Amino acid sequence: MQSNTAVVGNQDINFASFSVEKRTDKPDPFTVKDGRSVGSDGFVVPKDFAEFHERFPDYVHRWVGKHAGTSASEEDKEDWTHDLLIHLSRLPLTSKYREAGKEDIVATFDPLRHYGANEARFRNYINLCLANKFRTLHSKRMKDALCRPGNLSLGGESADEDLCSVDELCHKHSAHLRAAQNACQKQSHDRVFLQEFLNFVQRENAKVLPTIEALMTTGTRGEAAYWLGVAELEFDRMHTRVRHLARCFVSGEPVPRQRRPYKRRRASSACQLVG
């Protein structure tokens, strides 16, 4: 049986390129006090980057440590943290938000556009800004051949070994080179496979694309639900839909219609049925 796939080129995955229907999340009520938005949970949104960094001084550092990967060195993490802090602390000179008096990323948070001002909504916005910039930094770094992990020096060995020719070095490390090549090919294949799946999801049920992005960004269902700002029960329903789509994508089976969220009947209706 053929798979529900389409031939696509090997390209970077960008969720922003997918057309997703407008979210229908229920807005969370908020108030404005002393020029600051206050969420329904009592969280006071920082007015700018200076206040954000004063209240959450380790936020960006912890975020980088969580998303940089185990292979990243401490020096790389410090560099990325520094670059992300600079990104949050100032807007481009050509930014449209400067016309409204905004000077940094934190100040651009709009509770109306993000369905509320509670802590989960605000963290979701900051995490999105960090993730978008981090992808750009990481992609730029990986395009630099000198920064790729697993590079071998063709000019010599380590300090405690004798120098050898390039041919001898390649022969000595041929197993490592083959393993690196296989890993690179697998990574390229996985990226194409993932892109095909995302194209399939976009055609069949584009509303669950944010769920996939949240899982890829956070790694766990609980954190993904927090990242999206939805209840875990609602996230589990969307996650189940993603699993159904994945099964149909691999097997080639037709995609079933999604069930509507279950709603409990009102007590009055139940009493009428009994009567």
What is the strand and helix layout of this fold?
Elements: E1 30-33, E2 36-39, H1 49-55, H2 59-67, H3 74-89, H4 119-142, H5 166-172, H6 174-205, H7 209-218, H8 221-228, H9 232-251, H10 267-274
Q: How many DSSP helices?
A: 10
Distance between the termini: 53 Å
What oligomeric assembly is this protein in? single chain
Query: Which percent range describes the beta-strand content?
Result: under 5%
Radius of gyration: 24 Å
Largest sheet: 2 strands, antiparallel
> From N to C, what is the helix and strand string?
EEHHHHHHHHHH
- The outline comes out as flat
Q: Give the low-confidence spans.
A: 1-12, 19-24, 156-163
The structure class reads mainly alpha
Strand order of the largest sheet: 1-2
Helix content: 40-55%
Total strands: the figure is 2
Average pLDDT figure: 76
Task: List the defining traits of the structure above.
3% strand; flat; disordered N terminus; mainly alpha; two-stranded antiparallel ribbon; 2 strands; 275 residues
Describe it.
The protein has 275 residues and is mainly α. The chain contains 10 helices and 2 strands. A hairpin with a 2-residue loop joins strand 1 (30-33) and strand 2. The N and C termini lie far apart (53 Å). The relative contact order is 0.12. Mean pLDDT is 76; it is low at 1-12, 19-24 and 156-163.
